[in-house]
Amino acid sequence: MRKLAPAALLLLLAACGSRETLKPVAGKSLPPKPAMASQAPSVDQLLTSPTDQRPGRSEELLTKSQERPDDRFDLPPPG
Predict the structure, then answer these.
(1) Which segments show compositional bias classed as Polar residues (predicted)?
(2) What is the pLDDT of residues 16-52, one digit of tens each?
């Protein structure tokens, strides 16, 4: 129990980092405003990807193995 307490304390200490808003590095700026946008996107908007850019999740389970059909374009590298 005595060896577990310092490990738990270190884990809690490592988990409590400061939460600050993101800012560009000194001397750098955010990307320019897109041509058709009314205003430049904020840091949070730049970090949030739209749903159409996220990969879809397939819920289909592989129930039986099937041999793959031959692919005539699957050629070895030249040389």
Answers:
(1) 39-52
(2) 666 677 777 888 888 888 899 899 888 888 888 877 7
pTM of the model: 0.36
- Cα 40 to Cα 23, 26, 27, 55, 61: the distances in Å are 15, 19, 18, 26, 43
Q: What does the alpha-carbon distance between residue 38 and residue 36 come to, in Å, rounded to a whole number?
A: 7
Instruction: Return d(Cα 21, Cα 28) in angstroms, integer.
Output: 16
Cβ atoms < 10 Å from Cβ of 25: 6
Inform me whether the pLDDT recorded for 67 exceeds 80. yes
- Is 52 buried (19+), middle (13-18) or exposed (0-12) by CB count in 10 A? exposed
Structure tokens at 45: 């908007």
> Which tokens belong to 70?
């031959």
